[in-house]
Design goal:
The complex is a heterodimer of chains A (about 270) and B (about 300).
Chain A (H helix, E strand, L loop, with lengths): L1 H8 L1 H23 L18 H4 L7 H32 L5 H9 L6 H15 L5 H25 L3 H9 L4 H30 L2 H6 L6 H11 L3 H33 L1
Helix pairs in contact in A: 2-12, 4-7, 4-9, 4-11, 7-9, 8-9
Chain B lengths: L1 H4 L5 H40 L1 E4 L3 E4 L4 H9 L1 H32 L4 H13 L2 H11 L5 H8 L2 H8 L11 H25 L3 H9 L4 H12 L1 H17 L2 H6 L7 H12 L2 H26 L6
Antiparallel strand pairs in B: 1-2
Classes of the chains: A mainly alpha (about 270), B mainly alpha (about 300).
Chain lengths: ~270, ~300
């Protein structure tokens, strides 16, 4: 039985591709249903082909407002958590000091905590302080939970850096600032970029922590959540498809740049 | 490091080295302060909330009422068990599904490696709520997936096991576990891939030279060397899955409520803060205990 033999030899590849299909299937469904003309409030079953939603992506009340709010929050959360996280990562890798263990666990714990626990405890803090829930409380929460992920991403890169490169720069009479800007930062930048990209994705997509700490402010994930009860407009699938395409382009471009760097370093 | 090098005992140099010794603390200060104020301090507030009694109208007072913990645990025991069961099943499925794909990317993809990696990472950036809602379409009653499963008599078996009900998948445990598995799969694949990629391919050749079959090579060489990835992957899927309430809400029915759903509704709808706080502390304790035991057992403590 050549078929069975072939199947056995390629079992890993087949299983892997099946998993890949499982991962991509919902994205395909989102893409297909962005061209649907639904009958009723929910866009869950296929009716007929239409490009209406693509021609008028912001045709749903409040959706694009929530989208731009989410983008703003994600941008500021990325900047905040990347700056703070990179500083922590450098301190942890490059210096020996007391309380390292405690600081390491303080950074690890937010990643080892179910999101709902962090969300609820932050809400108790804000309620006790009498803070008004909205943009600022969301931003504070997002910087908090992105921070650990940025530290981990940057730390991995800085740890694999050769400290002799910086020593060489100093031997060649580069000042501390010059060494940092011209040598340290360029080498660490892939790690920082990975951390920033992760922070952006985590913040833009976060629902659980935002749901607790947003008050009456509506971010894009909260809009989607609400629409699951009220009715899902086709435009949600348009945005979902656009996000997928942008992500593919950005990630591919990132890998392309990384590859070219690697090749030019080899040459 | 350089502080050690510049050790001459002259006074100005020592001043400079004192300043240098403070550098790590200045680097750490803002971020650590952020984590203390917005992560650690809220836990303290929540601990105090969990031992308060009172009502929303009259206000809450700390009365060291530990009974709340016991009452909350007793009342929501089924939801706790269900959360751990669903999260555990989803984690296992993620490992079974994710391992071949991670292996494929690391060793078999060749020049398609980057393409496959992009396809694994890209869904990350598409709102997971939109993708979860897409499962409603995929698993819809009478849809192609349900039709195929029932023709193959899979649904008969799963219904007998209590995973599905009759000829539907939506609003059953199977749908919730499917959603959880799907949503946390990338968190399993990426650490697995990173640890598999680090394995020196010469080890595989060596195993082959020593007459090991592919299966033995996998069991004795590849899998043990990928353990760091397995451990961090399972943690990254199990922890968030145990506290998730989105999948149970969107894909399940009231019979599939997880503990996250209870915490959410106690906090945001019922406004019974002490019970909600006690519930989230119990969840946190269970997860932390399981994680600690698991890390000890698998012997990769240096991982974290």
């Amino acid at each position: 039985m050549p078929v069975i033999k072939w199947l056995r030899r390629n079992l890993v590849v087949i299983a892997g591709l099946a998993t890949l299909a499982y991962l991509i299937l919902p994205n395909v469904v989102v893409m297909v249903f962005s061209f649907n003309k639904p009958n009723g409030r929910f866009n869950y079953s296929w009716t007929r082909f239409s490009t209406d939603a693509w021609k008028d992506p912001c045709g749903v009340a409040d959706m694009c407002g929530s989208l731009s709010l989410s983008l703003q929050i994600a941008l500021w959360a990325t900047i905040g958590s990347t700056v703070l996280g990179t500083m922590i990562a450098f301190a942890l890798v490059r210096y020996r000091f007391r309380a390292r263990g405690a600081i390491n666990s303080l950074i690890f714990l937010p990643m080892a905590m179910p999101e709902v626990v962090m969300a609820a405890s932050l809400l108790t803090l804000f309620l006790n302080m009498g803070a008004r829930l909205g943009f600022w409380t969301i931003l504070i929460a997002h910087i908090m939970f992105c921070l650990s992920f940025v530290v981990t991403a940057v730390k991995a890169r800085v740890m694999s850096m050769d400290p002799r490169l910086e020593e060489a720069a100093r031997d060649l009479y580069a000042g501390p600032v010059q060494t940092f800007v011209r040598v340290t930062l360029p080498i660490a930048s892939p790690g920082i970029a990975a951390g920033a990209l992760l922070a952006f994705a985590l913040s833009f997509d976060d629902f659980i922590i935002t749901n607790f700490n947003a008050g009456s402010t509506v971010t894009f994930p909260m809009f989607v959540w609400g629409s699951a009860q009220r009715g899902t407009p086709v435009q949600i699938n348009v945005i979902g498809t656009a996000m997928f395409i942008i992500a593919v382009v950005v990630v591919t471009a990132g890998q392309f740049i990384a590859n070219r760097r690697k090749n030019s370093a080899k040459a | 490091m350089s502080a050690v090098v510049e050790a001459p005992a002259e006074l100005p140099a020592r001043k400079a080295s004192t300043r240098k010794r403070l550098v790590p603390y200045w680097l750490l200060l803002p971020g650590i302060l952020w984590l203390i104020v917005f992560f650690a301090l809220p836990m303290v507030y929540q601990a105090s909330t969990s031992v308060q009694t009172g009502s929303l109208e009259k206000g809450f007072q700390v009365t060291w009422h530990f009974q709340t913990y016991w009452d909350a645990f007793k009342e929501y025991c089924p939801q706790f068990v269900r959360s751990l069961l669903y999260a555990g099943t989803a984690t296992l499925l993620c490992l079974l599904l994710g391992y071949p794909l991670a292996y494929l990317i690391a060793f078999k993809a060749g020049r398609y490696r980057n393409l496959v990696l992009v396809l694994v990472i890209a869904p990350f950036f598409t709102s997971f709520l939109i993708r979860t809602l897409a499962w409603k379409t995929i698993l819809a009653d009478g849809g192609p997936v349900v039709h195929a499963l029932s023709t193959l008599h899979v649904l008969d078996v799963t219904s007998w096991l209590g995973w599905t009900e009759g000829h539907r998948v939506l609003a059953t445990p199977m749908a919730v576990v499917c959603g959880l598995t799907y949503n946390f799969l990338p968190f399993m694949i990426l650490p697995l891939y990173t640890s598999l990629e680090r394995i020196d391919s010469r080890l595989h050749e060596a195993a082959g030279d020593l007459y090991a079959t592919p299966a033995t090579t996998f069991r004795k060489v590849t899998f043990p060397l990928s353990m760091p990835g397995v451990v961090s992957g399972t943690l990254l899927t199990f922890i968030p899955a145990s506290g998730d309430y989105v999948n149970a809400e969107l894909l399940g029915s009231t019979d599939q409520k997880m503990v996250g759903n209870v915490i959410q509704s106690q906090f945001l709808r019922v406004l019974d803060y002490p019970t909600a706080a006690a519930l989230s502390f119990i969840l946190m304790a269970i997860v932390l205990i399981m994680v600690t035991v698991y890390i000890r057992r698998s012997g990769t403590e240096d991982l974290v």
